[in-house]
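Morning!

This is the sequence you dropped in the shared folder:
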Amino acid sequence: MASNDLITLSDSFVKDIVDTVTPHWGPLGWVTYKRTYARFIDAENRTEEWPETVKRVVEGNINLDPRLKGMGYGVGEKLPDPQLVKELTDEAQRLFKLIYGLAATPSGRNLWVSGTPYQHAHGDSLNNCWFVAIRPQAYGESAIVPSYVDKREAAVSMPFAFMFDQLMKGGGVGFSVTRSNVDRIPEVARTTDLTVIMDKGNGSFDESVKAGAVDRDEWLSQHKDAASATSATASSDATKPSDLFFYELPDSREGWVHALAAVIDSHFTYFPQEKKTVVLDMSKIRPRGSRIHGFGGTASGAAPLIEMLNDVNAILNEAAGRKLTSVDATDIGNLIGKAVVAGNVRRSAELALGDWDDNGFVTMKQDQTKLYHHRWASNNSVAVSGDPEQYEAIADAIRTNGEPGIVDLDLSRHYGRLIDGRSDSADILAEGTNPCGEITLENGEPCNLFEVFPNVAEEQEWDLKEAFTLATRYTKRVTFGTYDWEVSRNVIERNRRIGISISGIQDWFLSRFGHRVVTGFTDDRKPIYDEQATKAMDDLYKDVVAADADYSATLNCAQSVKHTTVKPSGTVAKLAGVSEGMHFHYAPYLIQRIRFQDDDPLLPALLACGYKIEPDVYTAHTMCVEFPVKAAHAESEDFASAGNVSAEEQLATQAFLQTYWSDNAVSCTVTFQEDEKPSLPKVLSAYAGSIKSTSMLPYTGAGFKQAPKEPISEEVYLEKLGQIRDTPQAAFARINGRHDMNDLELVDQSDCIGGACPVR
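The structure's back. Tokens below.
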């Protein structure tokens, strides 16, 4: 709880809910929660318990209501309105019960950040993902503005700085390298000599030298005329000698971003012309393993940053005398993402959006050396216009490489739900998507998510209208956070875009309607949809829109430009044990493998429970744990899994949700079997104009050693389940009491089924 929070949940209320509501933990739910979202409490040397997390998250959100601004008990503040406090306290209590029971949950970003001091300093951190167009842009009134640029003049570095900043705050970033953007970057004017220096006393000195740094004292002894530069900062760049740009990085996220901006901008004409050499002093950067007290987790040291800056500089040096290509721009974005991944608890999620007929972009991952070095850092998609021929051409690449994905920008700009028809103003300024493709976004705009598990909600006797209303109001409040970048503040205030998602959709269809939503196909392969499901989706959508209209009127702000989505889910879906987004369960019975650091305090508890644990065959100092999992409704005759449902039915289901539920987009990774490859171009092109974004991957089954998911038989599942002697919660409490973990990370987990979204 923040010290200035007016709306709080009493301990007695929390206890009443804990005593009467049982969280709907999935088979991996508690383990996933404990490793991913339970923050470390320094004063007690332990991590949070679930009631504490939910209390923090709800209080952090409810106090964003703008009507509370200026209220409090401090000097100069208005006294709180008792009626408003009562109304919001009642709402906070309903939200607590909804989330605690796991009938619904905010995004993973909110579970990690909401209610922390970091939220109040950086409201950006409450949003999962962002989008930025890679073209010269002005920094504006932003938290990060290099001293050598006019904040109102366009700089090449700005979109890359924005990307780096948001990735380091835990968000993912989609970015556009279409010709309409990259062609606006001026010619690279010159090469830059980059030198990174590091003090021997820094705990990461040896690693930094391996990454390309040089000894600070030795460099200064050889450049005595530069000694006066050692105290220079980003706001004081005039140093001696005159051809040297010297920057001493502070131990902060802003320092990292300023360093990247300087390296990029030094290649263009608006950078001070006399500065031929860029020297970056990284001696103040905390060494690897140090605690990060704001965002949480541990530091990576300077080495990943040094390697990234040298690689970016090399790309720009090679491009001197010409313009950057879409591949160059994507490479820079990927190198940024690679550096963030090396930052331990953060995850880089990127989607690069290019032109469908840009062969260099479409084939760039075929360079295996660069793929393994950095090009793995983004999922790549192409912008299309709904032309079936474009879909057919792309499907040919998909069945060969599994990429690119597809983003229909024309459909996104002119349509909300398809059933509501075309509009010339629906979302006309949208330029791309978040990394998972479920939210169409303008430049600088974030996705703002909350997901409801309707099957769980109905089991817990929630009125779905109330559950979706609470979700709508939660996300609306997020738009009133404190945002660091002017470009974001402007678009958020104008659009107030929200994304209310449904997860466990396949579970709900089977539970509520007794069968899947696609009941068949006509002779000309048009899907036939269940009428009850169609009405249910339409009604819930209208409930969300009505809730937004009501709350927007109360707050005197714009109604949201769009409201609903289907996110792919993943880590959050694991909490409640539901199917991920619109996806079918991977298999009726499977082994789910989760990777942990080898010193993770959860491992002894899992071993005591009887779970199989073995060293990871791919990564040192990592252990692989096997969890036997049974999918919901696995025994149902109408149960279908990703291993046996056709790509055609998956696309038909996506089109159904795009038509009747989602006015943003529907994220889906369509899986296909080997024998479906020949028909993919025809099947995919049949849904041109019906889906806003999609990606396709071959279904691999086990596929390789220690696969994250391995289908097994019911007999094997029961055998492995019989070996489990206790719950992880009970074993952990017995071994550790309440003195547990210290912000270690859950390895190889993601907030979506396709691995695009970050953990937190």
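Headline: Residues 28 and 509 are 22 Å apart (CA to CA).

More detail when I'm at my desk.
O.
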